[in-house]
Amino acid sequence: MKYIFLIVFLISFQHVSAQIFDIEPIKISGDDKRINLVILSEGYQESELDKFITDATNFTNKVFNESPFKEYANYFNVYAIKVPSDESGADHPGTATNVTEPYNNLATTYADTYFNATYDSFGTHWLLYYEIDGNSANNTKAKINTLLATNFPSYDQALILVNSSEYGGSGGDFPMAYTGYWGTNVIMHEIGHSLFNLKDEYYPGDILAAEAINMTKETDPNLVRWKNWLNYNNVGIYQYTCSTGSCNEWYKPHQNCIMESIDKPFCSVCKEGIIEKIHELVSPIDTFTPTSNTLDNSSFPINFHLELIEPNPNTLKRNWTLNTLDFATDVDDVSVLETDLNSGVNTLTVVINDETSLIRVDNHDTFHVYTVTWTIDNTLGFEDITSKINNYNISMFPNPSNNIVNFKLESTSDAIMKVDIISLDGKIIKTISISNYQTHQVDVSNLSQGIYLTNFYTNNTFIASKKLVKK
Fold first, then answer.
1. Are 14 and 78 within one domain?
2. Which of 403, 469, 355, 397 is nearest to 224 (CA)?
3. How far apart are CA 252 and CA 185, in angstroms?
């Protein structure tokens, strides 16, 4: 059996083995710390690859003119891989069951293309997909995976641009769209699914319905996932409207979002979800100096520098502390004098978080904090400097709460985080410690109703504060 499996594997590998293709950068914001979008050409002959680059550039420009991609454009790179096809366009088999064929007087046509893009996939005229159905697509999907592994293994999201003016597109691991007017919106909708975990805001069917950023069965305004946006920008708790399956059990945040109709923008809840994912994938800290160094007393002042990936407008807040005391705010460069240091070990920390209005942190479960800490040891008259970078994803839920509040920390370090729950008159009510990747439950049932502050510390350095509402 092992011998037969090996023969089958080798035959399959030969079938999907990929060539090396030309790669052209479309938008470069930085190195591989960015989110890498890769556009594959489909239905472009060798002589049409310049047109593909023009189409890919136009697509990129349109995407990054839309919020929230516009504000976070510096977090993305875009590359185009020139994959030539023997013929132009895509298949039109005329086999759709959702329209009367021939639809729009389109003739039945077949094109010899690299990924075998075809309309009428799964019986739907506008469903433009690699292959006519899921079973046939398995080999093509393997072909795409092999091509990417060979040509651009560090991609975060790949998509396929089809040389066709007829409306169509599809989602899945590798979203596909035509090059016409709505093609960019089709792709934005689809990567809303594949890269940012958003759900359709038209009912997607019982199989795809699930609790998500923008889909829930919860109707309590205090508990619904997007409670932080309720009654702002027309965000509400809207029931899905249809008569199929369990449709009436599910709710969405908006009635005019691109996740429902591609002629709309992203709603506030979906924008926030996209930004949250960007923060998970990319730290705003690009580089910093020094990373380590040994200096003598003649080297003062010691200069410390941050290079950040800035949103536009820049909404990154930077708070510097030296030995836990405030040192500077919202600057990327600080200088430390010899007189600023204590004898022995000193700690300089900068805490970075994003204060964009596109995220409403109060009442929101998760927030992200990033730090760089330099340890400066001048015990022997020399300044030995070492550095450490940390990313923190902090969750506090449910909020508001009657009885129990859960705290969860995900961090790139093993540091213990201290949390103080403080009344508005400044009294510390509770102090807890959170370990990395563990959920810590806190009983707040004995607290009076009202608003409290939760302050978060690592190594005695304050890094964040958030409101807690006791019901």
1. yes
2. 397
3. 20
